[in-house]
């Protein structure tokens, strides 16, 4: 299997066949979300392993998340496990709720909508609270904070890394 960042998606994506560097936030062809786990080996060393989770993606299948979305949404490529803990971190929530993430990264937004719902929280409500908090900061510290331009060109978002096979 050869992995390219752009191209035609022509292979079946299986979580357990993905390299650790592409595992987190990917979705298999059967709609299972891939999860990076640490596995204790017989010799006592820890190794990263991509596994298929029981969590299903509702909107996308066969998806390897783009670096643009990983950055826009504040995620780490080598994130281990799947947890709502990051929703408690204001800097992460700010990036997740940003227009760059919410409007261009449907895979990540779908995942966190479902993770938040599992905790009895609405991601939309969280983002609205974040928006109000940001507006209060802007009002307090001046309009110069709201004039920064996005460093992300919109056409590059939502384009997942693609898998192509060679034989």
Major sheet attributes = 2 strands, antiparallel
Number of strands: 4
Structural class: alpha+beta
Arithmetic mean pLDDT = 80
Fraction of residues in helices?
25-40%
What distance separates the N and C termini? 8 Å
Shape: globular
Biggest sheet strand order reads 1-4
Runs in which pLDDT lies below 50 for 5 or more consecutive residues are: 1-10, 149-159, 162-167
Verbal overview:
This protein has helices spanning 20-23, 67-72, 90-96, 99-104, 106-118, 123-141, and strands spanning 2-4, 32-40, 46-56, 162-164. With 167 residues, it is α+β, with helices and mostly antiparallel strands. The model is unreliable at 1-10, 149-159 and 162-167 (pLDDT under 50).
Give the topology.
Blueprint: E1 2-4, H1 20-23, E2 32-40, E3 46-56, H2 67-72, H3 90-96, H4 99-104, H5 106-118, H6 123-141, E4 162-164
Antiparallel strand pairs: 1-4, 2-3
Helix pairs in contact: 3-6
Please summarize what this structure is.
The protein has 167 residues and is of the alpha+beta class.
């Amino acid at each position: 299997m050869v992995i390219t960042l752009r191209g035609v998606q022509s292979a079946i994506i299986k979580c357990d066949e993905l390299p650790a560097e592409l595992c987190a936030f990917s979705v298999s062809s059967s709609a299972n979300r891939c999860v990076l786990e640490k596995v204790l080996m017989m010799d006592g060393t820890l190794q990263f392993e991509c596994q298929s989770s029981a969590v299903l993606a509702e909107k996308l299948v066969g998806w390897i998340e783009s670096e643009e979305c990983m950055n826009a949404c504040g995620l780490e490529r080598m994130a281990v496990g799947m947890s709502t803990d990051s929703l408690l971190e204001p800097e992460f929530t700010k990036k997740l709720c940003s227009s760059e993430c919410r409007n261009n990264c449907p895979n990540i937004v779908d995942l966190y909508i479902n993770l938040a719902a599992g905790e009895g929280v609405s991601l939309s409500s969280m983002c609205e609270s974040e928006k109000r908090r940001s507006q209060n900061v802007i009002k307090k510290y001046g309009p110069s904070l709201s004039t920064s331009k996005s460093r992300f060109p919109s056409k590059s978002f939502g384009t997942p890394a693609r898998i192509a096979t060679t034989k």
